Amino acid sequence: MFERSKRGNQAVLLCPSVAIKPDSGAIEEFTELAVSAGAEVLDVLTSSRQHVDPKFYIGSGKAQDLADTVKLHAADLVLVDAPLSPVQERNLEKIVQARVLDRRTLILDIFAQRARSYEGQLQVELAQLKHLSTRLVRGWTHLERQKGGIGLRGPGETQLETDRRLLAVRVKSLNAKLNKVMRQREQGRRQRQRSGVKVVALVGYTNAGKSTLFNRLTEAEVYSADQLFATLDPTVRKLPQIKNCEVVMSDTVGFVRDLPHELVAAFRATLQEAMDADLLLHVIDDANPDHREQIQQVNRVLKDLGVEDSPMLEVYNKIDVSGRDPAVIEPGQDTVGKIWLSAHTGQGVELLLKSIEERFSRTHVCKRFVLPPHLSQLRATFYQLNAVRFEQYVEMHGWEIEVELAQHKWDRLMKSGDANGAFIKQLFTNDTVESEATMSMTGD
Q1: Contact 164/129 with Cβ under 8 angstroms?
Q2: CA–CA dist 130, 174 (Å, integer)
Q3: Which single residue of 21, 111, 171, 192 has CA 20 to 30 Å from 126?
Q4: pLDDT tens across 334-363, in order?
């Protein structure tokens, strides 16, 4: 084996692709990821291959070309824009005589550099340990497996077994700490719901300008920069410009192509803000020529989170770069609303604030009805959603109850397919059911 460099920032990039022609947008993004991690990019190699080689991921010829390039530039690091197996990573390191990191490890390293809050650091360490558990190597040689002879017997388990056990203990400890943080965050969410506070969550591709827009709207001082994953830690601030309604805004972690599953799982507490939001603002970089593909990537992650049906506005940012004028397209029956603005200069921001205010003034539905006793589970659900505004027990009939929810949450209950869903559907369609529907500006 070779001696790994202690610096590890002089990098050669390898961007393999299954397409005949390499994707220039993907190469540019991976280069930005490398620079964001602190690497000095010396050269970029591309590779087109229809099938993944089990030994090197790329073909043996391209692996030798990579080794020659590393030697030519005296590089000490190879970054591969693909998920490598531990065997492929080890084989590439052997032939190129330099440290090899795949896309997942690179993103994890960036997250480790940028996490500042206690919660963010816990989430990153958990993701790193889960990734490391598949890449355990011989880190020490004493006290290894049992051997024969007096004085040569070890602790009764192999080195890797000991490493796995220690990792499992640490992962269990991190999960317990994260669960405690999640409970504290959940208390804050419930308090906002009980007090009728609406939640707007910013989602979008990394470097689309979410934090800049967040600072512009909330007058906060969240760190923002023209780089991928500039901020990771979840932040919630009040949105003072909205009238007749108390609104808070949440800035969430940005998404990226092929975001590692370990990170999605580890950052579940952060993404929970988006899952519980009354309105999602999908921030899009209007100046990026690949923004349509980025929209699809973000929508794919939102679908995995189960919030693809939540109310959403598409916010096309950076019109000061793209040259567009501020504009608004109202949402249709099957389309979302679109707004063009610049978070940097403030152009079009007033259009966004007006749209948010109008959205909350017309999307919350309040109904008063008599809930029969056999639907007590539905009553419990209303309380879990903090949606009950009035309740009075009616003997022999159940509960006279007033419930306020956003329309999309009524729709979710309606789609449950059980007796509760049937009752909600009847509530909205049958005039014989005693009900009262009003548009409200109070919380859900």
Answers
A1: no
A2: 11
A3: 192
A4: 778 899 999 999 999 999 998 888 887 666
Tokens, residue 248: 């808070």
Rounded Cα–Cα distance for residues 64 and 54 (Å): 16
Q: Are 56 and 92 in contact (CB under 8 A)?
A: yes
Backbone φ, ψ for residue 237 (5° rounding): -135, 155
Which residue, among 207, 226, 231, has the nearest Cα to 115 in the 3D structure? 231
Q: Using DSSP, how many helices (H) and how many strands (E) does the chain show?
A: 15, 15
According to DSSP, the residues that pair with 391 across neighbouring strands are 401
Tokens of 258: 């092929």
Residue type, 363: T
Neighbours of 291 (CB within 10 A): 19
Residue 402, strand partner residues: 368, 390
Cβ contact 229:110 at 8 Å: yes
Sheet holding 77-80, edge to edge: 40-48, 10-17, 77-80, 99-102
Per-residue confidence in pLDDT tens, the chain, 444 aa = 445 555 568 899 999 887 666 677 788 888 988 888 888 999 999 888 778 888 989 888 999 999 999 999 999 999 999 888 888 988 999 999 999 998 888 888 887 777 767 777 787 788 788 777 777 655 444 445 445 445 545 555 566 677 778 888 888 888 888 888 778 777 777 776 666 678 898 888 888 888 889 888 887 776 555 556 655 666 778 888 877 677 888 887 777 777 666 666 656 656 666 677 888 999 999 998 888 988 988 888 788 777 777 788 999 999 999 999 999 998 876 778 899 999 999 999 999 998 888 887 666 788 889 999 889 899 998 888 778 888 999 888 889 998 888 777 788 888 877 888 889 888 887 643 443 333 333 334
- Give, as one character, the DSSP assignment of residue 139: -
- Residue 328: which H helix or E strand, with range? strand 327-329
Contact criterion met (CB below 8 Å) for 337 and 352: no
Gap between the Cα atoms of 8 and 17, Å rounded: 25
Q: Where are the alpha helices (DSSP H) in 1-78?
A: 24-36, 60-73
Question: In this structure, what are the phi and psi dihedrals at residue 85, rounded to the nearest 5 degrees?
Answer: -80, 160
Contacts with 113 (C-beta within 8 Å, 6 or more apart), sequence order: 37, 38
147 exposure class (CB count in 10 Å sphere: 0-12, 13-18, 19+): exposed
| Count of beta carbons in the 10 Å neighbourhood of residue 132 | 15
* pTM beyond 0.90, yes or no: no
